[in-house]
Amino acid sequence: MKPTTTEFKANARVALDDAQLQRALAGLPGGLVAQRTAARARLPEFEALRDVGRDIRDHALAHLDLYLEEWERNATAAGATVHWAETAADARDAILAICQRAGARTVTKGKSMVSEEIALNGHLEAQGLEVVETDLGEYLVQIRGEVPSHIIAPAIHLTQDQVEADFRKRHTHLPKDRVLIEAATLVGEAREILREKFLAADVGITGANFLIAETGSTIIVTNEGNGDLTQSLAKVHIVITSIDRVVPTLEDVSSILRLLARSATGQEFSTYTTFSTGPRRSGDPDGPQACHIVVLDNGRSELLGSELREVLRCIRCGACMNHCPVYTAIGGHAYGWVYPGPIGAVLTPSLIGVKQAGHLPSASTFCGRCEQVCPMKIPLPKLMRHHRETEFDQGGLSWSYRKGLALWGWLALRPRLYHLASRFGIAALGAAGRRRGSFRRLPFATGWTRHREFPAPQGRTFQQLWAEHRAGLPR
Amino acid sequence: MSGPLSARPRVGLFVTCLVDLMRPSIGFAAVKLLEQAGCEVIVPAGQTCCGQPAYNSGDRATAAALARQTILAFEGLDYVVAPSGSCAGTLKAHYPALLSDDAAWAGRARAFAERVHELVSFLVDVRKMSRVEAAFRGRVTYHDSCSGLRELGIKQQPRTLLASVAGLELVEMAESEICCGFGGTFAIKYSDISNAIVEKKTANVANAEPQMLLAGDLGCLMNLAGKLKREGRAIAVRHVAEVLAGELAEPPIAVAN
């Protein structure tokens, strides 16, 4: 997917003006946010579990090489084929080759953000394969020619009216006068259509929420059951995942799963949590004949040894974006690449560069709510600040901003001069704003005054008044 | 260092650049409250800004230089108190990280951070103040500014003291813990997004139908007062210290003299 991260401001403007999107986003506080709050309240040890989860992930990342090797040994012993992919292109090529060897025409897909990261669908379609997303949200996004706007709720930017309109436009073989008012009827229609695809699929591709080193398993966490049909009905199952997903043991993953669904949707556990270990064994009632697991690096191993390492703890629950004032104002598409919200503001520049994605970590108020809700306690604001430092060191930011900052810094480091200069500056500004009490427009702060008044200063500085007060003068 | 409550600790007031420049009456309200809490207040002239504009813009070197300047300016004082959760958060939660790779300063930054407090939490948590001698007749709502809330755990302290203000009725607005969209330079750099965030906030404020909106950070208050005024909503906006100190002679923020 070609990033539009450099157009972030324009993207955001479009999003803010999109009434339909704003209606869809207005559902977040009463939806996912309220559900998480309730789930957290029902589990007294929730906060303690966050420490446990963080420690498990930190430990796994500190010994990532060992755990990946252990996982590979066990996965291979169970009959899976492991493919290591250093780049997105490597992963795409590996998956295409597997599909072609299987003689595939139709490929079903469960939800996978890594597949978005490597822009898999377009690559397979260019080779004549039919690719069908089977997660309802992903399906909606696919038939609209869009990308997910949220990592767990890909179609959260859509309202039910839009879905109905899209279904009528897309599913032209169905009666025009059918009733599609309720969500259940929409789901029913999608189910009918997807069922045929499940049965026709030659290859099923899923992601993996975790890899378990001690068993060689992969896990998917879903609510619709589509992932299970995707991976068990086709002859060949391909898992596309990334190196940071590994955890040492079943015990470890159990602890983390207690946090995942609660943080994501407020469920105690997702409807389906499916552990897969290799292809179908003799005696198994169902399952794929072959299982391939493609493990992507795509820059993650670089992060491992860097100050950004903590971002790899992420378990992709989406809580950070649900609670982010910026995300809830503009939605996911404005972020311009695969991962939106606070995690995207850290991950995107880490993977595609600060030069390309510098806006994302800059466009944060540092309110800290993301870090507060992150089940893995990722210090997202700190990591965003790290990107800002990289951008500053690389000479990013506009000339005028840099000059302004430099002048201010120079002055602020000379307290006597600073206090003298601010005394005069504030006297002038105070006099100009006294009558109205605020400014309708200020030339150096038009961004501010376009939307709000700029309050006038009282006219004298505290330091000045304090010096007079100390000298015994009345205030 | 902290000594018994009866002792008269020497408190350095970190004025904050916004209070210094925009609204010195908050500084005087802070001094009054600190003196009521039995402190001797010193205002070092060597302070300017905590460095957040540089720190949040990625200019670590300037931020570190300002951190060293601030630490030096407050040397020898028992406490450093700021009428802002955001600036106090920078001094307390970020200076140690900012200077951690500077061998000569890392320890000093940690020791300094120990002495730093936000004003209202200092009054309640350290000075054990549970009431103030002030009066305000009317409905008031309180916005929990982000840094104070999440970096310093300021939530109950202002409410405790506000409850003792004669005639004051505190009404909680919806989503009082959600950011107002200020974010320092964010409000100017990403003004459209900032506006969308503050619009939600002022709607929540207005729904609580208060006469006055309070918070502990002038940055947020300037943002909120400016928006409320642009929207034509007649809700007075003040720093919580002004009400707690009974210093209401100056007009509210963004209101003409």
Give structural notes:
Chain A has 475 residues and is an alpha/beta fold. Among the domains of chain A are: 43-298, Rossmann fold; 400-470, no CATH class. Chain A has helices at 8-17, 19-25, 29-42, 46-62, 64-77, 88-101, 113-117, 120-126, 136-143, 160-170, 183-200, 226-233, 250-264, 300-304, 319-322, 325-330, 341-352, 354-357, 359-362, 369-373, 380-393, 399-412, 415-433, 446-449, 462-470; strands at residues 81-85, 106-109, 130-133, 203-206, 210-212, 217-222, 236-242, 246-247, 272-276, 290-296, 438-439, 454-455. Chain A is elongated. Chain B has 257 residues and is an alpha/beta fold. Chain B has helices at residues 17-22, 24-36, 52-56, 60-73, 85-98, 106-115, 119-126, 146-152, 156-162, 186-189, 191-207, 218-230, 240-244, and strands at residues 10-13, 40-42, 79-82, 116-118, 135-142, 166-170, 212-215, 236-239. Chain B has a four-stranded parallel sheet, sandwiched between helices. A four-stranded parallel sheet of chain B has the order 6-5-7-8. The mean pLDDT of chain B is 96. Chains A and B meet through helix 1, helix 16, helix 20, helix 21 and helix 22 of A and helix 1, helix 2, helix 3, helix 4 and helix 8 of B.
Q: How would you classify the helix and strand content of chain B by structural class?
A: alpha/beta
As residue ranges, the low-confidence spans of chain B are none
Q: Level of helix content of chain B?
A: 40-55%
Distance between the termini of chain A: 62 Å
- The CATH superfamily label of the domain at 43-298 in chain A reads NagB/RpiA/CoA transferase-like
Number of helices of chain B: 13
- As for the CATH topology of the domain at 43-298 in chain A, it is Rossmann fold
Spell the H/E element sequence of chain B: EHHEHHEHHEHEHHEHHEHEH
Using only C-alpha atoms, the radius of gyration of chain B works out to 18 Å
Strands in their spatial order, largest beta sheet of chain A = 1-10-7-4-2-3
The outline of chain A comes out as elongated
